[in-house]
Amino acid sequence: MDKKELRDALMHQLWRMNKMDLMVNMREYLEGESAALNYLYTCGDARVTPSQISENINVSRARMANILRSLRGKKYIEMEISEHDRRKMDVCITSAGKEYCKERYDYLARYFDLYVDVLGEDDIKELTRLIRKTADNEVRLKK
Hints:
By secondary structure, the chain is mostly helical. The protein contains 8 helices and 2 strands. Helix 2 packs antiparallel against helix 6 (95-119).
């Protein structure tokens, strides 16, 4: 196969994979409200600023404000004026937010367990190796 055929075959298979329930659920987990909530979950009981969340999940500050407003409305987060700088807000996850994150993670873990069962150990290891290689070469791919 020449480079064009290889490229087109890869693009076609990635397009097909993008439509899988697995990827739809993963996107929901990694973007928007869920991404912000998961970041807060990994911070434990620490309070973080909206800017820190925004930078971590790679969204604009305006989008972050909308996400935080929605999460606060769902009682998944609390926001308070910072003790250290009265011009800033501190954000932390609530117990309801932690429970939601745990449920979402458990759902995805079960889904990925099935994926491992379908592909088998050797293929999962190879796929993981290729994904790691792709992620490790992101700088070269951006050029």
